[in-house]
Amino acid sequence: MELYQLRSFVAVAELGHLTRAAEQLHLSQPALSAQIKALEVELELELFERKSSGMALTAAGKRLVGEAQKLLSGAQALRNEARALRGGVAGLARVGTVSDAQFIRLGEVTSAVVECYPQIEVQLSHEVTGTAFEKVRDGALDASFYYGGLTHPTMSGLILREVTYRIAAPAAWHERIARAAWPQIAAEPWIMTPASSTHHQLASDLFHAHDIAPTKVIQADDEFVVGSLIEAGLGVALMREDIALEKARGGAVCLWGDVRLTTALRFVHLREREGDPVIRALVDILKDVWRLRGTGRRPRCAPGGERRAAASANRLKRESSPARLARR
Q: How far is the CA of 106 from the CAs of 24, 97, 112, 188, in angstroms?
């Protein structure tokens, strides 16, 4: 089998449609169809069911698509290593993002990558944290920001910071929940993120620890949507502490008790790719931006890039300062 066949297999699996996959790969539809057919002949398995609505993975296809993604990631890692040996780190970095860009310092990180490693092409994909983890594990992403613990044997991660959550409710419910105990809080409508998210797992662990269960759940797939629903008076939810305190001071929400749940913001990648030059470059940049090297350590940067990276980071900080934003 050929790598281009695996690339076609993964593209069709992700898009679920032959025509859209052909457009993405810059192939004609007959050529793409022929590649898929050749791969099925090679594997002696049907990978897709052809339906009027598009292409659906068979049971065998679902089992094999993750392996195909890993092989493509491995091939990319090999190319990256070869480029590094020729001089200079180059390659594609597909990076998952979670939460808001400012909180994970995405602007500073991306700016530093562009300045220090101009031959690395960064593709960003915003994900629910659990989905981001799965995509890195399966090879669909090279690395990702991620909330939560890390016990999977194939994964490695860099802890960036601790993250604390509080229980927030609509501001108008202040008197309603002020003296509420756990059973009363559980009886309120809860706004939850999807089951694959760390946010959801934190809430579930909280319920389990107090032997309670929410009676009504509204689901939203984004933390900022959750915050908007709380403000709209629709229910109770976990909210990141920095946001919760700011909204509470502004009278948009109220906080119940002094309950705090903590997790970690990490940057994760496959353990087997720790030696990949592109992964090493991203981790080095993160260590610099998040000041994780300790005192006295100079940033690792491509020749001539350190000064530009520092200037870019400082410029981003100035442009995002509260005073600057207020003037705008």
A: 26, 8, 10, 35
> How long is the chain?
328
Calpha distance 282→294 (Å, rounded): 18
Burial (Cβ within 10 Å: 0-12, 13-18, ≥19) of residue 307: exposed
Domain count of the chain?
3
Q: Which of 107, 147, 99, 150 is nearest to 126 (CA)?
A: 99
> Worst-scoring range by mean pLDDT, 38-42, 152-156, 194-198, 314-318?
314-318
Determine the 3-state secondary structure of 170 from DSSP: strand
Instruction: In whole angstroms, give the CA distance from residue 83 to residue 120.
Output: 11
Q: Check residues 85 and 248 and name the one with the higher pLDDT.
A: 248
In order of 34, 133, 231, the CA distances from 12 in angstroms are 13, 21, 41
**Residue 283, token pair as written in the block:** 């981790």
Cα 321 to chain centroid, rounded: 25
**Enclosing domain of residue 216:** 162-263
Hunting for tokens 């934003």 — which residue is that? 325
Whole-number pLDDT of residue 129 = 86
Dihedrals phi, psi of 84, to nearest 5 degrees: -65, -40
The CATH number of the domain holding residue 137 is 3.40.190.10
172 and 246 belong to one structural domain: yes
Check if the beta carbon of residue 160 is closer than 8 Å to that of residue 267: yes
Which residues on adjacent β-strands are paired with residue 168? 237, 255
176: number of CA atoms within 13 Å, CB side? 15
Three-state DSSP class for 50? Answer: strand
Percentage of the chain beyond pLDDT 90 is: 57
Radius of gyration for the alpha carbons in the chain, expressed in angstroms and rounded: 23
**Same domain membership, residue 10 and residue 156:** no
Regarding pTM above 0.85, the answer is: no
Which residue(s) pair with 143 in the sheet?
95, 269
Neighbouring C-alpha atoms within 13 Å toward the C-beta of 283 = 20
Domain boundary among 248, 263, 278: 263
DSSP state of 209: H
